[in-house]
Design a protein that fits this description.
165 residues; alpha+beta; 2 domains; two-stranded antiparallel sheet; 4 helices
């Protein structure tokens, strides 16, 4: 499914603006939903080309800012392409998060098992017998050996576990 993505660079003046440079923001729009963030660059409003979404002028500083904005635009398009390639849900927020490196917290199998076993250890004698706890410890050892033999790794992302696993 194709999704139309729109990127817009614009100036955002503060409420109490009087004079001087203002921050350049980037707006990502996907299916009428928006996500915005600052680019970390500033521009004088008189030097801003609204239609092009770039700074006007021929000085080296202007060329540097415009090159930065062009690079930023390309990185966002790359983040969009990566989401499409992964088959992820495409929204303005997910593109922004992918670009910024914000993602769902990765849960690892061995960490989850170790955490479970620590909780079980506290409940031995109250809700569970010592034999049950020992079986969970065996599960931990067997899972670690399985991961080492079949995947040559010490841990595994839970979201990648499927029936074949």
């Amino acid at each position: 499914m194709k999704t139309k993505i729109s990127l817009l660079f614009y100036l955002k003046k503060p409420k109490n603006y009087q004079k001087g440079p203002v921050p350049i923001y980037l707006r990502i729009t996907v299916e009428s939903k928006r996500a915005e963030f600052t680019t970390g660059r500033e521009c004088e409003p008189s030097h801003w080309n609204t239609i092009a979404g770039r700074v006007t002028g021929a000085k080296e500083a202007v060329k540097s800012v415009n090159a930065y904005l062009g690079n930023l635009e390309q990185q966002l398009l790359d983040a969009h392409a990566a989401l499409v390639r992964d088959g992820a849900l495409i929204t303005a927020e997910t593109i922004k998060n992918k670009f910024l490196g914000i993602g769902p917290k990765q849960r690892l199998l061995m960490e989850v098992i170790a955490d479970h076993n620590e909780r079980m250890k506290e409940l031995v004698g109250q809700e569970y017998a010592i034999g049950t706890f020992k079986r969970y410890k065996v599960l931990e050892r067997h899972t670690a050996a399985f991961l080492k033999d079949h995947f040559n790794t010490s841990d595994f992302d839970i979201s990648r576990i499927d029936f074949a696993f």
